[in-house]
Specification:
This protein has 122 residues and is mostly helical. 58% of the residues lie in helices and 5% in strands. The protein has a two-stranded antiparallel ribbon. The relative contact order is 0.16.
């Protein structure tokens, strides 16, 4: 992966933050000071920038319409699970980190399983 640009330079990050603002109000870039650092940590973990992550979760069908790629979505969902598992701290902290990244995908139109994704007890 090339060096990450500042996250706010990525269109998918701006889309995410705009979606959060529309849904919850406030300033999503500052109301949770961990939000952007968590996404950046995930990008470094996965070796991909935010725009690439969303691009790999979609495909163009025969009619030329953009669709969710089941294979791409599964890949990134699995990487989020791996990322969440390696986060140090409590189950709640692990879940917050994983769910923050899931929120990024969801607000960019990549639908995932409903409900909070909690780390499994080991």
């Amino acid at each position: 992966m090339a060096e990450l640009k500042p996250l706010l330079e990525y269109q998918t990050v701006r889309t995410w933050l705009e979606g959060l603002k529309e849904h919850w109000g406030g300033d999503p870039a500052t109301d949770d000071p961990e939000r952007l650092p968590i996404l950046e940590a995930f990008c470094r973990f996965a070796g991909a920038d935010p725009d690439t992550i969303i691009r790999e979760c979609t495909r163009i069908d025969k009619a030329g319409d953009r669709r969710i790629s089941v294979k791409g979505r599964r890949k990134w969902s699995d990487l989020i699970d791996q990322f969440q598992a390696q986060v140090e701290g409590s189950r709640i902290r692990k879940a917050k980190w994983g769910n923050t990244v899931r929120s990024f995908l969801i607000h960019n139109g990549i639908l995932l399983a409903a409900g909070a994704q909690m780390a499994r007890r080991e």
